[in-house]
Amino acid sequence: MKDFETSTSILRISNQVVIPDHEIELNFIRAQGSGGQNVNKVSTAVHLRFDIRGSSLPAIYKERLVQHKDHHISAEGIIIIKAQRFRTQEKNREDARQRLLEIIQKAMVTRKKRKPTKPTRGSQRRRMEKKSKQGKQKALRRKVDY
């Protein structure tokens, strides 16, 4: 028994970027685990599917999401999230939408480019002094040759 959800709200990613609810497919399924008497009767778990390529997201969002390494993103470019943490459909729906938002925001974070640096002259000198001191110390530990 699967229910299909249709709504007219939006998921706000940023000030300019929103996802209309008709692009997010929500199916309600029976949850695994605890749930008491309702576990076999009520479909509280949410199975969220979001097609990246078929969405109204800007091109840069689509490109970064498809390249983003996340186990929720399939090879076909579909984000699949199963939310069953809570015992109510409403909380699981909100949880799934929140996790979708987090995946999209994580994909949009640009990592700071690393600037390669060279060790300073002072640190190189200290390193060489330490090495020679350690070598002299080890030489003193050797057997004495008469």
What does it look like?
There is one protein chain. The chain is of the alpha+beta class. It has a single domain, classed as Double Stranded RNA Binding Domain. The protein is built from three helices and six strands. It has helices at about 60-65, 90-110, 120-140; strands spanning about 5, 10, 20, 25-30, 45-50, 80-85. A four-stranded antiparallel β-sheet has the order 1-4-5-6, with helices on one face. A two-stranded antiparallel ribbon has the order 2-3. Strand 2 and strand 3 (about 20) form a beta hairpin. The longest helix has 21 residues, at about 120-140.
Short description:
This protein is an alpha+beta fold and 146 residues long. The chain is built from 3 helices and 6 strands; from the N terminus they run βββββαβαα. Helix 1 crosses helix 2 (89-108).
Structure characteristics:
two-stranded antiparallel ribbon, 6 strands, alpha+beta, 34% helix, 3 helices, four-stranded antiparallel sheet, 146 residues, disordered N terminus, Double Stranded RNA Binding Domain
